[in-house]
């Protein structure tokens, strides 16, 4: 996390004190994102029993696009955790694309969306590695709903597009903030 924060800090263009405050919010977002999607406490490994039997939990992998999304909307009454999962993935990386463009870390929207796509793929691969690693220990539980799902990548990428749309729908706001501080 330190390396990612360092890289973002070196590439960000901060023009005003408001930009600095927004950059702090961005860094906090990156840490919260890590905690939500890839964090497993080291203490869990220390307090558990090592069995050495590692296997891929194929029941926790979905590689068929739109299956999870379609199943959610086909339910007569979707459960709240399922709705939160879908909505959360549809919004999860919007701040990432927004801030990548806002701070000029990425110069073009297509590059920001590519970064969001690659970030989403990395999250899913890390979650796959974690679910496989955890099988070798007795006593570690995954967070509820943790799985590797292509639909998460699709929704997260759409969320990146949403962040771009939000940023480009208010360019006058950024100009006004910049002019007020000069």
From TrEMBL:
Membrane-spanning intervals of the chain: 20-42, 83-103, 110-133, 153-173
Record keyword Membrane present: yes
Organism: Listeria fleischmannii FSL S10-1203
Name of the protein this chain belongs to: VanZ-like domain-containing protein
Organismal lineage: Bacteria, Bacillati, Bacillota, Bacilli, Bacillales
Annotated PANTHER family: MEMBRANE PROTEIN, MEMBRANE PROTEIN-RELATED
Keyword annotations of the record: Membrane, Transmembrane, Transmembrane helix
Pfam families linked: VanZ (PF04892)
Domain VanZ-like: 26-168
Source domain of life: Bacteria
């Amino acid at each position: 996390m330190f390396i990612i924060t360092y890289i973002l800090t070196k590439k960000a263009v901060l023009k005003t004190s408001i930009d600095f405050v927004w950059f702090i919010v961005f860094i906090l977002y990156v840490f919260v994102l890590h905690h939500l999607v890839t964090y497993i406490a080291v203490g869990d490994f220390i307090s558990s029993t090592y069995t050495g039997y590692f296997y891929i939990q194929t029941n926790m992998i979905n590689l068929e696009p739109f299956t999870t999304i379609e199943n959610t909307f086909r339910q007569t009454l979707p459960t709240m955790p399922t709705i939160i999962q879908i909505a959360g993935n549809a919004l999860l990386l919007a701040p990432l694309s927004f801030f990548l463009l806002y701070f000029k870390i990425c110069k073009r929207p297509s590059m920001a969306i590519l970064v969001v796509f690659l970030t989403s793929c990395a999250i899913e691969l890390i979650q796959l590695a974690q679910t496989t690693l955890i099988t070798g220990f007795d006593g570690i539980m995954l967070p509820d709903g943790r799985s590797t799902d292509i639909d998460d990548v699709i929704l997260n990428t759409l969320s990146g597009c949403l962040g771009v749309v939000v940023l480009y729908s208010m360019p006058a706001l950024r100009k006004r903030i910049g002019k007020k501080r000069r």
